[in-house]
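Appendix B. Chain record.
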Amino acid sequence: MVKMIIMMLAALSLWGKVILTTPGQHLIPPAMTLVDIRTPGEWKETGVVPGSHLLMFFDERGNYDAREFLQKLEKIAPKNRPVALICNSGNRTRLVSDFLSRQGWREVYDIAGGIQAWRAKGLPLVPPKL
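Structure tokens predicted for this chain:
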């Protein structure tokens, strides 16, 4: 029983931490990569956060390719640097943030309320460069 608990704690220590943060709570520091995981249609509809990277996780039908997403993400957001995720309302980032923490990202910020909360606070948005 003790060995089992020790193994579980060791496994948990390999996971990164997920930090729920509100839009505008802090400026996105240069060392942090902001990734917008919404769909291209959503990016066009609302605009995107200046400086964010556009990398869709779920498509319009809810399908995803986790392996392809991780390969693309690692090129723009190394596992040893903090990454922040934003979606439309916060539901997708909750899932993807937990997933990334289990894949070795050490510090994952989940922007609560997503782009809707960002817009409600009057924070800047720009047209996406697709």
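Further analysis of this model is presented in Appendix C.
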